[in-house]
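May I ask you to review the protein record following this short note?
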Amino acid sequence: PGDEVIWFGPSPAYPVAPATDWTLLLGDETALPAIGAILEELPPGHRVLAAVEVADRAEEQPLPSRADATVTWLHRHDRDHGELLREHATALQLPDGRGRVWGGAERGVMRELRHHFVHARGLDRADTHLTAYWTQGETQDSEV
């Protein structure tokens, strides 16, 4: 009787590993709530680099944090989704020490970035958490 409803709520905060020196957060507009929640939970002084790809400046949002956070807004304008995020992430100078990478964006972009950070940058796979929030060309209903 009726339609099936699937609801996804907030998940537990992304914890900082005790031996982690820095965190890299990557995402598009679909990841903004998670990036905001992670930034709010990171401890004071923890080094954070965040890059968020959005359509334009109007989509930027305040992302408060007690951490030592640098947020870079990537304005897509007429470029393909994920193109700027991919370019920025692969060219990024990472801080020294052990780091963790968290990301949420289009499936293909997250797959490419996971491969990049594990194989080209040498990060441990356990230190990379890159999640497909959506798939180009598909709707949620196409999987039902």
Q: What stands out?
A: The mean pLDDT is 90. The chain has one domain: 22-143.
